[in-house]
Specification:
Strand content: 5-15%
Radius of gyration: 33 Å
Length: about 675
Amino acid sequence: MTIPEKFHPQDVLVGIIIAFVSIPISMGYSLVSGLPVAYGLYGSLLPVIVFGLVSTSPRFVFGVDAAPAALVGGMLAAFGIASESAHAVQLVPVISLLVSLWLALFFLCRADRVLKFISQPVMGGFITGIGMTIICMQLPKLFGGDAGRGEVPELLAHIYHEAVRCFNLPSLLLGTGTVVVILTGKKLNPKIPMQPILMFVGAGLTFFFHVDSYGVKTLPAVAPGLPAISVPNLQLLGAYGKDIVIPSLSIAVVILSETLLATNNIALKYEDKINTRREILAYALSNLASSFSGCCPVNGSVSRTGIADQFGVRSQLMSLTAGLSMALILLFGTGFIAYLPVPVLTGIVISALLGTFEFGMAWQLRRVDRAEFFIFYAAFFAVLFLGTIYGVITGVLLAAFTFIIRQSKPSVDFLGVVPGLSGYYSLTRKGTATLPIRGVIIYRFSGPLFYANIGQCQKDIEGALRDDTNTVIIDASGIGSVDTAAAKGLLSLYHKLERSKIRLYITGHVSSVNDQLRVFGAAELIQKRAVRAKTSFALADTGLLQPYPVDESQRQGMRPYSPQLAEFEWAFGSESHAMMEQFAHRAAQKIADKKVLDLSRMRNTENEFFQGYWNDIEEEHLLDILGTEVKRLKAEGRIDNSMEIESIINARHELLEERVKKCEGKTAKNLLP
């Protein structure tokens, strides 16, 4: 262990704040794990200090947290061990020890390199499922009941039975009020740590107003003093064996993946340099310290990291201060804990868990990647209905399956040229005025070419052949590797096209692909100059030089030639027209309100709204849409017919058309032989 090189004095204050925020959160998660509340405070002392000394992340907070606590609590429930019992106090440190050993093994095996195979949708669905499960476990404590165990169906039944058995309205008001105040305070002023404030408010309600006399449960008293450091009872390993060894592996995987992902996210925000391997060592040593302190496994805390970030944390002096502050609290400040209402603590835990939900990620995935969206909810529901272990397994298997499917059907495209511009552009973006080169098919394949997708590659090319096709070029700039089947498939395609007097080229790939073609029996492609470094070289082999002859039959419905590429439409694809309609609608509303059209201001707004992807071609298209909007507002009576708005739009339109015609004339001259 080495002391961090840079400390920042202001982080002392941040550490004190984190210590007070950790009191209710760590006590709550300690109960979730099946331990008495005091062990949550113990887990916020030595493990946090160890992490602060070893970690390379200057801003991340470590401690007792949701996911490991829930997994441990589920293990105890599966063994039939009562929460807060002497047996639980003996077994949980053994689980923490195993977790630390697994993390140490991950450190030795450089497991950070494998982490990239666990996708964020898998982790997002898994963590959200755990958060929802813990909330369902804790809900009865909001109205005076006891926490539940098991999966969601059992938990929902338990919530109902507890509500019938011991519903207490004052408890419910305290608990739900705590959640509402924390969430509202987070929106109004996130820099105010509401958790410790409400903790002391709850204790004050018991001390001054005796809410416990109304049936509101309070926490048991915690004796002052530091945790006793001792070796866990290793004899329990013989009693439980693989029943705790394998589940402890899953806890270690969760700690590793969740914490590293979150650490890297905060590091990217501030461009911090993180040594991921040393981070794993920090996790292992912190969990070893937790085990010797009698605590449950510890983990990175996203919620407390967010609080520290809001207060401008810059170094792990924060963690060292937080640990020392917790030591002082344990020595001199535990008296108030016996006055803390259980529903208030439960409300603090539930509000913290709500912050771990990743439904926002799922909403984004639904719009851009349905497969990842499905994976998120598959992991989420697997955790809810099958348990945490099966949730991880389900998510990882689905992610692996999706990866294989995507590799077998990678992104492909057919390319052409925009007269007047260099380069090759997608033919699927019709608004870009891209045209195919006469007699030439340029096919771009993005992904490794192997046995599962070589057939699709052959099928795509053969399906695109026309009567006048004399050259096929595979743009292989996205191909990083080929296997035996792919090499043989390319050679077979070469011979098949050769028999039809069509020349095949493979261009733009990394040089190692040529080595693979030679090794896998396709050296003939190299010997016959079917592989070229650039697409332009292959075209030159066939006698085609810029400006390339284009297939004019494909021009129907396209915009005129222009050396300006419709880059906005290329960048945003199917969303581009909707964005233009949105802008035109807003512009028309402003015209109706102000009774005037300021073209110069609108052009400045256009460039800002469309993020710099803007030129005459895009503006001409926008004016068409704006003209339609103006006519609609006139029909509705919102714009006076005597106004000259349409004439202004038409005049601008004519000017743009004149520019395009000049560009078209210049381009046409360039196309002459």
